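My current task is to audit a protein record that another person submitted. I need someone to confirm that the token line plausibly describes how this chain folds. Take the sequence as given and treat only the tokens as open to question. This is what I was given:
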Amino acid sequence: MSFEQIKLDDAFSGSTELSSVALGGRVLSVSDEFFAEAFHLLLVEPPPSLKGQFGPNGALYSGWESRRHNPRYDWCIIKLGASGTIVGFDIDTTHFNGNEAPEASVQAFYDPLSSDPDATDARWTEILPKVKLGPSSRHLFTIPNAPSATYVKLNMYPDGGIARFRVYGHVKPLFDLAHVFAGGRVEFVSDQHFGVGSNLILPGRGKDMGDGWETKRSRLPGHKDWVIIKAVELDTAHFKGNFPESCEIHALSSVNDVDWTVERSESEDWTLVLPRTKLGPHRQHYFQLENVEGVAFTHIKVTIHPDGGLKRVRMLGRREVAGASKVPSTAYELESVTTLVASKPAAAKSTLPVLPLTPEAFAPFGQVIQAYGDHTAAPKGTKITPANGGTASKFHKLSLLASSYPPNAGATAGLSVYRCQPLKDVNMTDGTTELTDLYPMGPGPNEGLADPGHRYLVVVAKNGENDKPDLKTLRAFVACTSQGIVYNTGIWHQPMTVLDKALDFTCIETQIGNGSIEDCEIVELEDSIRLRLP
């Protein structure tokens, strides 16, 4: 098996770290780990220095270290987090100096249905021959035409220490979602100073900032960073003071492999599917997409302004069936919402997805009133002070109240209570209900979940021509009882609609006189719209 040793310089930026513990990689067995346990090999974060720290067996290291004087060699068997085609390795001996492994080799085999192998399994095939290693440094090797692998076996000769072992490659698709397990991969990033771009499409929400994508700070006006994802919710988990100010998403259809130059990344071939939208700290964001109906795409470009960190990117879609259209079977038809659930067949009538309510997605229509257990997750600029003798936190002026009635209208503001019964006409087969009418607000144009059994719908639209709802701006959200909302002036909304259990609402309303019918305007939609409930 041939190989090539290469320099750093983002060598594997277009690949996925198949061995990462963030992907589910794990150590199955090891010949010896007397001084330092082998699980360290797969950790996401770079190895820290533990100089001067000692345990019962000697000096501590973040890595795998075996006893001295092995007459043969030591080995470690690893099950990859996802089966895939291997393109190379990073064998890192950082902080092992004088006790590093002098040489190493790698064996592998592919069998996703196999029981866990042992060191003598006849299926092991050498894919990286014995190579020399040096003290406290990273050693990167590419493997041309390497076979696919489910398991790898790292051998070190004769013994010693290795800090990290990273196996890079391309995932073999397992199911039809735009996700790392579907064969999605990060093909190009403008910057990955603090966290690599391929982390964006890993499963789960990770454990800290170390397993997300984070760029260096920029002081240049108009700066932006981007990542191009093939066939892939925007999540800023753990990024609290260094989340991006905003983002936008473009999509592209390209059958062939692309040389991702700056010029191509800015090409007019890209279709804007999410206009520039503000982001918030430490939470999942759900946005409805545009310009995706009846079009298939192969790549997604996520642009962040001006810089910062994202934890995960998810994009819901349906894989095109080969022969069913002119678009190749590697293309994806995007749904009009980013979410984590599998897509359902398109309904005959227009269907509007219902998204979890977040301050950023609801911002064009009003404000979300809620508290945050983690204060750093509150929207930027929120004033928070201790209250109630130190037993509470006060989130100041999350929304300001305004009345648009003229001074001589005789309107007054007050509190009203509504007892609302739960929605009955939900189709249990496809989880949809019908939206038939809207009300205007005013005369003019998953944190803190108190009770998961109490939810309500919020459906909104901006005012359009002739003071009617602009249905192109229609959006739907699901809120919990720890969240309140304030509509902007001129925003149309669905009647109060409760899910699951009966709820009482207290509403701050400005009314003329005794609140008669002149305060309520209803527009009946020409064609009902189906709401897909989460």
Q: What stands out?
A: The radius of gyration is 28 Å. Residues 366-532 form a domain with the Jelly Rolls fold (CATH 2.60.120.480). The chain has a mean pLDDT of 78. Residues 262-265 form the longest helix (4 residues).
